[in-house]
Amino acid sequence: MSQFFQIHPDNPQARLVRQAADIVRGGGVIVYPTDSAYALGCHIGDKAALDRIRRIRKLDDRHNFTLVCRDLSEIATYARVDNAVYRLLKQHTPGPYTFILRATTEVPRRLMQAKRKTIGLRVPDNAITQTLLGDLGEPLMSVSLIMPGDELPLIDPYEIREILEHEVDLVLDGGYCGMEATTVVDLADEKPMVLRAGKGDPAPFEAP
Predict the structure, then answer these.
(1) Main-chain dihedrals φ then ψ at residue 199, nearest 5 degrees
(2) DSSP state of 208
(3) What average pLDDT does range 178-207 have in this prediction?
(4) What is the pLDDT of residue 75?
(5) What are the distances in angstroms from CA 90 to CA 73, 81, 83, 176?
(6) Do residues 130 and 20 touch, judged by C-beta distance below 8 A?
(7) DSSP strand pairing (183-186 vs 97-103)
(8) Which of 60, 94, 129, 188 is most open to solvent, judged by the fewest CB atoms within 10 Å of its CB?
């Protein structure tokens, strides 16, 4: 049975956030809100938790997992970026974008897209997520909470608890969340490519 924390969306309760971070560090899988939709998250180094997320979402090794970061300070640890790409990232973070980047050797192979060796990177503009990441002191491994067969993310935390109460360890209730996924931009090659148009404006990354 999963735990269920009601978190204030603008002033997250420090005690509950600390408990959530401890659950992540202990190998738990959590559901948490972002600036676009609810997501599934776990500790970056925990293979068992990652495998649980794969089972929940029914994902194969072609799926890009995302490192959800508090800011860009850790980007050089996990992704290879030149100055031009870094400027693009800085202009559009925090915000509802997921950027596909070449992964460094610091990223566990199981988190990478198998063929291209890429990783997603995201800096959400959400107080709950930002506070949680601050307590963790490292990125959260994450995927959008879109159930198998669905096209849109789940938005109601009570419905999420009902569906996933035996599959996850914690649901962070930050209120109703959006159902629009992030805009996904591939920055791994020479020219940016919009792979999915979502909540973030794709125009800055589209060819004229």
Answers:
(1) -70, -35
(2) -
(3) 90
(4) 83
(5) 11, 12, 10, 28
(6) no
(7) parallel
(8) 60
